[in-house]
Amino acid sequence: MTDDEILNAWNAICKVINKDNDDLKSDILNHVGNKWSLFVIHTLGVDGRMRFSNLQKNITGISQKMLTKCVRELERDGLISRTVYPEVPPRVEYELTSLGRGFLVQVTPLWYWIANSVEQFKEARGNYEKSK
Amino acid sequence: MTDDEILNAWNAICKVINKDNDDLKSDILNHVGNKWSLFVIHTLGVDGRMRFSNLQKNITGISQKMLTKCVRELERDGLISRTVYPEVPPRVEYELTSLGRGFLVQVTPLWYWIANSVEQFKEARGNYEKSK
DNA sequence: CAGGATCCGCTCTGATACTG
DNA sequence: CAGTATCAGAGCGGATCCTG
Predict the structure, then answer these.
(1) pLDDT band at B21, cuts 50/70/90?
(2) Of A100, B1, B43, B86, which has the maximum CB count within 10 A?
(3) Is the CB of residue B33 inside 7 Å of nucleic acid strand D?
(4) Any bridge partners for residue A119, and if so which?
(5) At what angle do helices B64-76 and A118-131 cross, to 10 degrees?
(6) Residue in A34, A38, A116 nearest the CB of B12
């Protein structure tokens, strides 16, 4: 992106984030920063369509309550789809939507950069602790 | 990014996020998703070096307590720098570090995409509400 | 199997008051 | 000016028990 494009981008961003879109704030903003959302989207992106229990198995440390909440929010915002099969015992499968795949594509470079910058973050923190 | 690069990216990401880096989770992950962090980084990125009171003026709705907390965390993780001038009354200026500028560059395309996808998110939510 | 309901400790946040 | 300190309320997140 050129400097101009970045400025335009930020104008668009601020228009969206500011005022009367506070609902989007606590939602989409949250999907970006939320550990569980990221894992759910990642898991579905890599392994494809998957059922509830399988998701929980693949995402270490998540409780069923948090997973439920997380998939509900992702479904509500159109990032994943939820399919219920009328069987006994019940079967529910989750899958990335095209919007969700777009999200994954957009978020990947950022996370890659963070992963590659971990040492710099650690060093920064080290310096900060010392200076205190 | 090619599919291979995306897979490699996610391997790197998961290695970083999983286990023994839970401190990084609640920190860097938070900077990405946190409304205030984003505004602080954005404001400093667009307007350059700035003092505390000016930041608060530029960021609508933030309380001084939250701004303090936010800049402390950003400083700790090396995204912004804090300069104190030994004057009376005191003057403190904040500025993006090169790491912080890197962060801004990385996060911009993602936010641009989100801003441009707002209508799709709204529509998704509308459908979800109806189906309930 | 895929969750809903409940209890409970903890953190996050805002509002207000005070200080070097 | 640039914070710190304190109180109070809302919501997060885990653990446990229950159900169609």
Answers:
(1) low
(2) A100
(3) no
(4) none
(5) 110
(6) A116
What is the distance between the terminal CA atoms of chain A, rounded to a whole angstrom? 38
Whose CA is closest to B110, among A30, A104, A117? A104
Average pLDDT over residues B22-30: 74
Per the listing, tokens 């059922």 go with A51
Q: Which tokens belong to A45?
A: 């992106």
* Residues in CB range of B111: below 8 A, 6 or more apart: A9, A10, A13, B38
Contact between B77 and B31 (Cβ < 8 Å): yes
Q: State the SS3 of A32-96.
A: HHCHHHHHHHHHHHHHCCEEHHHHHHHCCCCCHHHHHHHHHHHHHCCCEEEEEECCCCCEEEEEE
Residue that the structure tokens 């709705």 belong to: B61
> For A35-68, what is each residue's pLDDT tens digit?
889 889 989 998 999 999 999 999 988 999 999 9
Return chain B residues 83..112 having CB < 7 Å to nucleic acid strand D: 89-92
Distance CA B67, CA A44 (A): 36
Structure tokens at A89: 């015992």
Tokens representing residue A54 in the block: 């399988």
**With bands split at pLDDT 50, 70 and 90, how would you rate the model's confidence at B112?**
confident
Q: Which residue has the tokens 């969206």?
A: A16
Average predicted confidence (pLDDT) for chain B? 87
User: Are A106 and B108 within 8 A, CB to CB?
Assistant: no
Q: Among all strands, which nt has the closest C1' to A89 (CA)?
A: C1
Backbone φ and ψ for B66, nearest 5 degrees, come out as -70, -35
* Pure H helices in B18-131: 22-24, 30-33, 35-47, 52-58, 64-76, 98-116, 118-131
Q: Please tell me the predicted confidence (pLDDT) of residue A10.
A: 74
